[in-house]
Design brief:
The protein has ten helices and four strands. The chain has 230 residues and is of the alpha+beta class. The chain has a four-stranded mixed beta sheet with strand order 2-1-3-4, covered by helices on one side. The radius of gyration is 18 Å and the shape is globular. Keywords: Cytoplasm, Transferase. Its EC number is 2.5.1.18. This is Glutathione S-transferase. GO terms for molecular function: glutathione transferase activity.
């Protein structure tokens, strides 16, 4: 089926959710047109393709849009031949989906809330605490799901690796900008070692941006907010 499909991906360089989809497409070896979106000036294509959330990523397949990163990754896995992204065993697949939902519903709001929601030092400390609590649950999940292998997906990356791995460059950006270590090797040694291995995979090296891009994005956003407040 590869090579016969018209695929466009609407994304943003520093969006972990767009990177999630790019990782999946990279795993499958699929060619696609990448279209960079400016979320401060959203294109008509984005607004018409995702009228509900008006967010990236959106995968447009033969003119038909597919929205929401986890949905897109599963769609890509079902559509294209190549290495399986989701586990083939039904129980393992359900487990991967459960923890993927945990990443997006619990971990993501916690770590992004450190900057987006916390207004005081106490509020920031509470969000950091929530983040570390979620990371410790992922540490336990990795011990169970990986069964002693290198990745959540076994000997190579899979669905849950992609879902969490797309955030790792942002975790490093937070360490550089705010001095906050999200995955600590002393507290979450299994996850810390996994993160290093994930970063060395061919898929990650191909699509995950340099940490400096996230640092620059935060600096630009802070400057714009300061200018608007004057």
């Amino acid at each position: 089926m590869e090579g016969k499909e018209d695929l466009k991906l609407l994304g943003m360089v520093v969006s972990p959710f767009a990177i999630r989809v790019r990782l999946a497409l990279s795993m499958k070896g699929v060619s696609y047109e990448y279209i960079q979106e400016d979320l401060s000036n959203k294109s008509d294509l984005l607004l018409s393709s995702n009228p509900v959330h008006k967010k990236v990523p959106v995968l447009i397949h033969n003119g038909k849009p597919v929205c929401e990163s986890q949905v897109i990754v599963q769609y890509v896995d079902e559509l294209f031949a190549g290495p399986a992204i989701l586990p083939t065993d039904p129980y393992e697949r359900a487990t991967a989906r459960f923890w993927a939902a945990f990443v997006d519903e619990k971990l993501h709001p916690a770590w992004t809330g450190i900057v987006r929601e916390a207004k005081t030092e106490d509020e920031r400390a509470e969000k950091v605490k929530e983040t570390h609590a979620a990371i410790m649950q992922m540490e336990e999940a990795f011990a169970k799901v990986s069964e002693g292998k290198a990745f959540f997906g076994g000997d190579s990356i899979g669905y849950l690796d992609i879902v969490l791995g797309c955030c790792l460059f942002w975790f490093e950006a937070f360490r550089r900008i705010f001095g906050i270590e999200i995955i600590s090797s002393s507290e979450a040694p299994l996850l810390a070692a996994w993160a290093e291995r994930f970063g060395e995979t061919a898929e990650a090296k191909k699509v995950v941006p340099e940490v400096d891009r996230a640092v620059q994005y935060v600096a630009a956003a802070a400057a714009a907010a300061a200018a608007a407040a004057k």
